[in-house]
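Following up on my earlier message about zinc ion. Here are the inputs again, as you asked, copied directly from the submission form:
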Amino acid sequence: MNARRNPSEERLLAYAAGVLSPPQAVVVAAHLALRPANHAWVRRLQAVGGELLDETSPSPLSADALARAMARIETDTGVVTAQPLLNDMPELPEPLRRYALGPWRWVGPGIRVRDVHAPRDGACRVILLKIDPGRETPRHTHGGVELTCVLSGAYATETERFDVGDFEEADAEVIHQPRVVSDDPCLCVAALDGQIQLDGWLGRLMQPFARL
Ligand code: ZN
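Thanks, got it. Here's what our run produced:
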């Protein structure tokens, strides 16, 4: 599997096993909704995990195990969506439609952010980020892991381009300055752990204003 612009295999394994932190799982689910081949790979992992579980757990199943398994399968296949669709952005992939959204906030020239009211994990939370064509974020590094999936449009860093469905994993080792290269605004969903750290003297001056 090509790791470039995809989640790492470790992260997909954690997602398949249901142990990924909830905000990160939301971003991975959005990516999988846009990348059927990766979604199929995760389903195969889950099937293998289920078979292993069958072999290693002889204890009797609880009374509602079948109902819970069926509900999970229906959700995974997208055949039945038990969760009501809550928000005002029908263009979002299905895994993001089930969450309420906060108001758009201006955080810089051509940059708007809105909170996704998905489960948090400590300081890690989910946001939508919309950046106008030709605009870029300040050059920054990260207080924790930052996972981003492109939902529409495209952006480029110094070394790579990210189109719809592409996934970027960044952490304190990565300094980047994403710039929108599509003709339309670029909409992304991101799980941010802690605050971004702006680079350079101007960045440090602007840091108090850069809270996402
Ligand atoms: Zn970043």
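One observation from looking it over: Residues 36-56 form the longest helix (21 residues). Hope that helps, and feel free to reply on this thread.
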